[in-house]
């Protein structure tokens, strides 16, 4: 049985918000019986774009992560609902029946991702339906996948085994996999959001003129072990990325023709060391 | 009876049958016939043959022969002409000529004659079948937003959804480019900008102006209370009352004061569509009525028009260059793209939606081996999307950084000396300035560091890399200018120095050009469809580019404004308040046109006493706009009418509001991103050229009406309706536009109306436009498909060389030598901003430089406010309490120093005014720089306008309106000095403008008292 999955590439998301706008366009003021009651114009974020600024100064990196109902295969909302108000379709999509779910606020509380939203006016829990009403009419993509200009958001309908293979080959990750809910939303390049880096810029002064040092050998140590190596570019810049946040003290050792230097860095979040003069 | 009169009679007989038949089959037509009771006669004057048509309570009776007392008579000189002009398909040139030569005349009350003509014309369109039914019961129409083409799904008279357009199997296949072994192909669909996807929300906005409204304390026959504009409320009136008021005020003002008394002011943009666009229907209307035009400054082009044009010409592109073929050349031959104050991911190339995004994404493919660097004080969206080295010069200072790059190139021999020798002029002069021979100051990287804050070592490294690589320089959002640093105080210098940099590297060589993949796609440039600047139905052969091509293809009655008076837009408040203003001409015919002065008032004209305003944009898009608040409250404006879709911005300063509908509620036609005029071939931002039939998806909401309808009705009361609309309905103009284009070669009118869109076939690879400037580099005749510069602007042989006097790239500009302007020396020199770190006391008081670039999610005022979906985007506005606040971004250290935390309400202020914003500390800005977008839609002062803090986010209340130089009519306000502090809850903030006014009033009062005291003894 082929099932729907959403694949999101964090490196290609520009925060244009076309997906969030398309969702508002689709659901605000529109009732799709059996799928979804209208979405309130304000207050709900069925697709919510998280962001993380990493680093300081001019060595900055910003990543955006669109999040939404994960259509989990082991969905807490299904378990929390009464009267089969929340069901899992054979194609993987989780639907909160807007009639049966009326008054069931516990469905909102059950979602560990915060992606079931309470409609105060209609007293129903709501989530992004994967635009099932459109897919059921033959649309090849949900609204977000259709409107995304970079292909950062794409839905695929494949066998679970195929999805597993893709996830492995493309290093796809899920949000909070440790919860064991088996999300159907997958992320590529999530490290841009979730990890930290140490960056710096190496320079030297010769005859009163300061220049960038290209080709300096940079080594990263933690607890005395060599973790990684890098070489500075023509701006003297180096960067060690994909470090765990809060991973503590590191030592950066810089070797150039002119000499050597060691700089300490403490990683809670990303650290831009700025100019390091040799 | 002649054969001709026999044919004429048959046609008229046919018409007598067609009218009731149409009513029988089409309820809309039957309803139309109930609108008026009249007897209309169509006749030939020489043979006195004709037929009359009596329409009463929806019923049509008709007889051959002449009626003794018709209400309306349409007379042709003879039956031959009558038969010819009434037989479809219509030859519009013959129609127009008959009117011009008085061979066809219309007699009778304007309302009835125009109504009858439109009713007859409606026969041509009433049967049209629009839209494609869908499986889910909706009907799919098409439309065009400023943010891209849309499918519009409608059910039961309601817009259900709007989406981009996915091409079907009958649409053309896309083009491909082979670059470094990689085949690059754009997807077969259109894209949208965020404001385009926001369309449904703004159509159904609760802020729509849905009924004509009169200011409650405005009495045209008594107290007008101009001082209360912006403060008093409104009372709903009927359309009849509103139209009577505006037309009688036009007549009154002209009669009382004289010609030119009415100024017409519109924003720089409008809802999309070639007939309803401001350059179309509004221009025809304002010319028909006569007006003082509010002469625009070259908006987002500023530095290019007033500066760059002197180095390379391109005055008909407002100083920005040709861009053909650059996408292919950049991808194939370029090693590095330098984005300099360029953020296409935010500005979408104005109308290009996310089309460029798709192409720039290709740059991320390591196989293309093309690096990217970014120069911008703000780590902008393009820098986020395309990682590369980021240089963050202080606003207004990057001119110095550019000069230091040129300095390094000179010192290290890293520029194309042969090219400079053969293709440029005046380099030695500039070189002497750069190395310090002229003023003793070498423009070294260390020198620039003091100005820009960018480390000298980084600039040196960039200069060296650039000098060794094939580089595309991408200044501004379009990659060849537009937006960005050309809009601040040093914008002229900046645009100039950008041209100088590419000139040193050999502009036109493979891989060396200007661009950032926003413009220059290989689409078909020979397929003709008019851009909006071609004037649509305006008939305006002076104020639009109509005469270039559309006027011949779509003959129409010409229109001409009889008033020669212009107000330079930047100084509009001064013109009204002080009665005089001075600016300079924006006219691209030649480089030198810009030296001509625009003086208000014009000799012999009446001062402006009435304002016809279109929309609500000025307060947020012009600079230091408390001046505009004051202007509106001046008794010098006896009447202000605002024709607006939404109650926003300064709409609430009008005496009368005329509610216009959106482009989703009226019919129109357009091509995506087709600017025409100064933006010739704007379609080269697109991956596919797409022409749209903009079907009316829903009926106009409330009592709102199309601009065309409003103008027609006003014109009826001035006896001008038949002149204004030529007896046509909007859809008839749409069809004329269709027929004027190359569309009929590919698709029938009926098919086009039904399907709603047409994708222009992909150009064959061997027919693609050549690369811009390649001809120049290779010393050939110009071969790119743009009809400019004008033939007489070539100093030598036609098509050989550039528009400059030398035909070369001029480091030392001949046009500026002739102009002898101390602020614009012949070679570009660095003169620091008058609103920055060199501003002395002002900088001490207001130490933060505020950037106000174009917004990312809204398009100027469009899409913002209006309770739209955009409010939910946290990088657009943030809800604090019960209000969505505009964002002011600042460096975290600057925020911490002021005790400011994320989303705190802060007062952003200077002497010009104060704006309440939500703070967003971010590493995206260096210290000392804050960032907030300009052009929000909301102006909402918490107290007295002009004397209190605005919570709408109108940052242009704070920006300087002084022009970049005295001799240019150029906006300089993209940078302003401000202070930011946690809001203390105080509402009052006296603006400089109002303080001066109050002081002047006090002085006047004191003088009066003094006079009275002097007079006393005489009592």
Secondary structure: elements and pairs:
The complex is a heterodimer of chains A (278) and B (1019).
Chain A: E1 3-9, H1 18-27, E2 48-54, E3 61-67, H2 76-80, E4 86-88, E5 94-96, H3 106-110, E6 117-119, E7 124-126, H4 132-135, H5 143-147, E8 153-158, H6 160-169, E9 185-188, H7 191-194, E10 196-206, E11 209-212, E12 217-222, E13 225-231, E14 237-243, E15 248-256, E16 259-267, E17 271-277
Chain B: H1 3-25, H2 27-33, E1 38-44, E2 49-56, E3 59-64, E4 72-76, H3 79-86, H4 92-100, E5 104-107, H5 110-122, E6 132-133, E7 139-145, E8 148-155, E9 158-163, E10 177-179, E11 182-184, H6 194-197, H7 199-203, E12 213-215, E13 234-236, H8 239-257, E14 262-266, H9 278-289, E15 292-295, H10 302-312, H11 326-333, E16 336-340, H12 344-347, H13 355-362, E17 371-375, H14 381-385, E18 389-391, H15 398-412, H16 417-423, E19 424-425, H17 427-435, H18 445-452, H19 456-468, E20 471-475, H20 491-505, E21 513-514, H21 550-553, E22 566-568, H22 572-578, E23 581-584, E24 597-600, E25 610-614, H23 618-621, H24 626-632, E26 639-644, E27 656-659, E28 668-671, E29 690-694, H25 707-717, H26 721-725, H27 730-740, H28 749-755, E30 757-759, H29 774-777, E31 809-810, H30 814-819, H31 841-845, E32 848-851, E33 877-880, E34 883-890, H32 892-897, E35 905-910, E36 913-921, E37 929-931, E38 975-982, H33 992-1015
Parallel strand pairs in B: 1-4, 14-15, 14-25, 15-22, 16-17, 16-20, 17-18, 19-31, 20-21, 25-26, 26-27, 32-37, 34-36
Antiparallel strand pairs in B: 1-2, 2-3, 4-5, 6-7, 7-8, 8-9, 10-11, 12-13, 12-27, 23-24, 28-29, 29-30, 32-38, 33-34, 34-37, 35-36, 35-38
Helix pairs in contact in B: 1-2, 1-3, 8-25, 9-25, 10-20, 15-18, 15-19, 15-20, 18-19, 22-24
């Amino acid at each position: 049985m082929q099932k729907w999955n959403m694949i999101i590439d964090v490196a290609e998301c520009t925060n244009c918000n076309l997906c969030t706008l398309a969702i508002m366009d689709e659901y605000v003021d529109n009732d799709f019986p059996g799928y979804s009651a209208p979405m309130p114009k304000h207050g709900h974020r069925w697709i919510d774009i998280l962001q993380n600024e990493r680093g300081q100064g001019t060595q900055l990196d910003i990543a955006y992560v669109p999040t939404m109902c994960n259509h989990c295969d082991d969905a807490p909302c299904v378990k929390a609902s009464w009267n089969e108000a929340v069901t899992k379709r054979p194609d993987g999509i989780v639907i909160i029946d807007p009639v049966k779910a009326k008054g069931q606020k516990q469905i909102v509380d059950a979602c560990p991702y915060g992606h079931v939203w309470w409609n105060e006016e209609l007293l129903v829990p709501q989530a992004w339906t994967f635009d099932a009403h459109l897919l059921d009419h033959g649309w090849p993509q949900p609204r977000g996948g259709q409107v995304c200009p970079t292909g950062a958001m794409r839905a695929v309908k494949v066998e679970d085994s195929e999805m597993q293979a893709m996830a492995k080959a493309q290093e796809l990750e899920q949000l909070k996999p440790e919860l064991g809910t088996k999300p159907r939303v997958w992320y590529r390049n999530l490290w841009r959001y979730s990890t930290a880096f140490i960056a710096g810029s190496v320079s030297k002064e010769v005859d009163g003129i300061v220049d960038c040092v290209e080709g300096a050998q940079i080594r990263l140590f933690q607890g005395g072990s060599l973790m990684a190596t890098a070489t500075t570019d023509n701006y003297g810049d180096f960067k060690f990325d994909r470090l765990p946040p809060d991973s503590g003290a590191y030592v950066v050792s810089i070797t150039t023709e002119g000499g050597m230097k060691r700089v300490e860095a403490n990683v809670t979040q990303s650290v831009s060391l700025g100019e390091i003069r040799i | 009876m002649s054969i001709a009169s026999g044919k004429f009679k048959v046609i008229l007989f046919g018409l007598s049958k067609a009218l009731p038949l149409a009513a029988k089959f089409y309820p809309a037509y039957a309803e139309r016939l109930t609108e008026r009771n009249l007897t209309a006669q169509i006749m030939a004057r020489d043979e006195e043959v004709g037929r009359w048509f009596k329409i009463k309570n929806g019923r049509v009776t008709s007889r051959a022969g002449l009626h003794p007392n018709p209400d309306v008579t349409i007379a042709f000189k003879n039956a031959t002409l009558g038969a010819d002009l009434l037989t479809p398909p219509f030859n519009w040139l013959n129609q127009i000529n008959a009117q011009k030569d008085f061979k066809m005349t219309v007699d009778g009350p304007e309302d009835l004659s125009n109504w009858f003509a439109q009713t007859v014309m409606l026969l041509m369109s009433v049967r049209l079948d629009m839209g494609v039914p869908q499986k889910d019961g909706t009907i799919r129409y098409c439309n065009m937003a400023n943010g891209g083409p849309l499918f519009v799904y409608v059910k039961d008279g309601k817009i259900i959804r709007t989406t981009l357009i996915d091409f079907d199997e009958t649409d053309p296949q896309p083009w491909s480019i082979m670059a470094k072994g990689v085949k690059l192909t754009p997807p077969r669909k259109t894209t949208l900008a965020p404001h385009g996807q926001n369309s449904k929300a703004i159509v159904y906005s609760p802020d729509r102006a849905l009924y004509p409204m009169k200011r409650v304390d405005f009495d045209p026959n008594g107290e007008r209370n101009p001082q209360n504009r912006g403060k008093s409320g409104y009372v709903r009136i009927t359309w009849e009352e509103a139209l009577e008021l505006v037309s009688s005020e036009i007549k009154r003002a002209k009669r009382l004061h004289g010609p030119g008394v009415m100024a017409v002011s519109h924003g720089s943009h409008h809802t999309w569509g070639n007939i309803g666009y401001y350059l179309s229907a509004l221009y025809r209307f304002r010319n028909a009525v006569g007006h003082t035009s509010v002469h625009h400054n070259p908006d987002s082009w500023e530095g290019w028009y007033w500066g760059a044009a002197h180095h390379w010409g391109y005055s008909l592109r407002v100083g920005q260059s040709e861009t053909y073929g650059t996408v292919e050349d950049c991808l194939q031959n370029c090693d590095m793209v330098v984005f300099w104050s360029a953020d296409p991911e935010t500005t979408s190339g104005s109308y290009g939606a996310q089309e460029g995004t798709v192409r720039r994404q290709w740059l991320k493919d390591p196989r293309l081996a093309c690096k990217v660097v970014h120069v911008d004080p703000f780590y902008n969206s393009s820098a986020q999307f395309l990682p590369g080295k980021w240089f963050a010069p202080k606003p207004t200072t990057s001119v110095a950084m550019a000069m230091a790059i040129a300095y390094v190139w000179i010192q290290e021999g890293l520029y194309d000396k042969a090219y400079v020798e053969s293709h440029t002029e005046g380099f030695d002069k500039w070189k002497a300035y750069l190395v310090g021979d002229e003023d003793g100051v070498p423009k070294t990287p260390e020198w620039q560091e003091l100005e820009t804050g960018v480390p000298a070592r980084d600039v040196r490294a960039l200069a060296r890399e650039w000098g060794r690589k094939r580089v595309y320089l991408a200044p501004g959002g379009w990659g060849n200018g537009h937006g960005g640093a050309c809009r601040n105080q040093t914008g002229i210098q900046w645009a100039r120095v950008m041209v100088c940099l590419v000139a040193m590297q050999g502009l036109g060589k493979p891989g060396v050009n200007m661009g950032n993949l926003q413009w220059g796609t290989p689409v078909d440039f020979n397929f003709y469809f008019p851009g909006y600047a071609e004037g649509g139905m305006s008939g305006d052969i002076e104020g639009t580019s109509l005469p270039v091509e559309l006027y011949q293809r779509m003959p129409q009655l010409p229109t001409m404004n009889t008033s020669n008076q212009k107000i330079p837009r930047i100084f509009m408040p001064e013109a009204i308040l002080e009665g005089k203003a001075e600016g300079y001409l924006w006219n691209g015919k030649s480089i030198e046109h810009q030296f001509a002065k625009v003086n208000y008032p014009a000799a012999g004209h009446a001062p402006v006493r009435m304002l016809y305003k279109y929309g609500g944009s000025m307060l947020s898009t012009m600079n230091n706009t408390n001046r505009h608040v004051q202007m509106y409250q001046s008794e010098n404006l006896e009447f202000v009418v605002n024709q607006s879709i939404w109650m926003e911005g300064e709409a609430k300063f009008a005496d009368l509001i005329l509610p216009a509908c959106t482009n989703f509620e009226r019919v129109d036609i357009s091509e995506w991103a087709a600017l025409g005029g100064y933006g010739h071939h704007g379609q080269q931002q697109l991956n596919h050229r797409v022409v749209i039939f903009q079907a009316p998806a829903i009926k106009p909401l409330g009592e709102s009406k199309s601009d065309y309808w409003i103008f027609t009705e006003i014109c009826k009361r001035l006896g001008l309706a038949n002149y204004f609309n030529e007896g046509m309905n909007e859809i008839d103009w749409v069809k004329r536009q269709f027929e004027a284009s190359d569309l009929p070669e590919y698709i029938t009118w009926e098919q086009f109306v039904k399907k709603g869109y047409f994708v222009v076939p992909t150009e064959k690879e061997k027919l693609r436009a050549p690369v811009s400037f390649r001809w120049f580099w290779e010393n050939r005749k110009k071969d790119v498909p743009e009809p400019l510069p004008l033939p007489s602007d070539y100093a030598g042989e036609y098509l050989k060389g550039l528009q400059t006097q030398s035909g070369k790239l001029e480091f030392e500009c001949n046009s500026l030598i002739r102009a002898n302007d101390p602020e614009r020396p012949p070679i570009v020199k660095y003169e620091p901003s008058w609103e920055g770190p060199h501003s002395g006391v002002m900088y001490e008081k207001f130490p933060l430089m505020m950037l106000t670039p174009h917004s990312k999610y809204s398009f100027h005022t469009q899409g913002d406010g209006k309770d739209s979906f955009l409010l939910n985007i946290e990088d657009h506005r943030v809800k604090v309490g019960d209000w969505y606040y505009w964002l002011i971004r600042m460096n975290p250290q600057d925020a911490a120093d002021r005790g400011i935390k994320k989303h705190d309400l802060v007062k952003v202020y200077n002497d010009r005014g104060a704006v309440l914003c939500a703070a967003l500390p971010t590493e995206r800005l260096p210290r000392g720089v804050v960032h907030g977008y300009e052009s929000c839609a909301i102006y909402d002062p918490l107290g007295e306008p002009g004397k209190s803090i605005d919570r709408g986010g109108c940052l242009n209340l704070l920006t300087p309106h002084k022009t970049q130089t005295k001799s240019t009519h150029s906006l300089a306000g993209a940078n302003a000095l401000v202070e930011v502090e946690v809001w203390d809850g105080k509402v009052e903030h006296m603006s400089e403008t109002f303080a001066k006014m109050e002081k002047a009033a006090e002085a006047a009062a004191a003088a009066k008292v003094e006079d009275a005291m002097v007079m006393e003894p005489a009592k």
